[in-house]
Structure prediction request, 260 residues.
Amino acid sequence: MEDDFIEEFNAQGQYKTPAGWLDPRHRQETIHVKGKPDVTLDVVTTRHGPIITELLPGETRKIALRWTLQDGMGLMFFDVNSAQNWNDFRKAFSTFGAPGQNVMYADVDGHIGYQATGRVPIRAAGDGSLPVSGSDDAHEWIGWIPFDEMPHIYDPPGGILATANGRITPDGYRYSISTEWKLRGAPTASIAFWNREENLRRPTCWRCRWMCRQPTTASAPTNSSTPSTTPRTPRSAPNAPPTFCATGWPHVGGFRGAND
Prediction:
């Protein structure tokens, strides 16, 4: 997740903040080029991040990149690999900072789940879709979306979860995760494909069956993270409906930053 801030510099090379003019940090980075002289870069960094103007053809403003990865990634892979259940799985990914990912869960008891991960900022104003002024605090990041309020679902009634870079938030979702979503029809097409029984029977698709389950009884609420103890069996009927989250949108992946 990233935002762009337009920094205002004066003739002395300082940039404007609500507290006055400050000196940016300078860091020299040397890039070794095979068969050619080294290239030395002066990386100028403000309170929002490095100035990336030279990477943007035709841009003359001083653009600083604010990126969640600058605050650390979070190495949760050991905990994920040793997770014993859905709660362990979610707890491990709750420490994952960036880059945000769609992650899918399946266990030996036939349970499946989906979780959007990564730190997503709560902004004082705006949605991160356009560069904003860095001279004031009007668009600063003031917190993170709580992990428990990130899109997730466990044992969906339809028995299918699909993630293909589509929208993962319903109308009325209280936070801004993104303003751009790709491949809107891909998840629907995927669900339609797996709803055809002959496709589930293909030998090359045996791994996919873990993500295509039909509940034997009523499953837990679709927005609940509480594991159900009801065993789930492989799908055997082609008429299961698409998976929907609690507020009505198909629960499909696409966790993408506004300016990614």
In short: The mean pLDDT is 76.
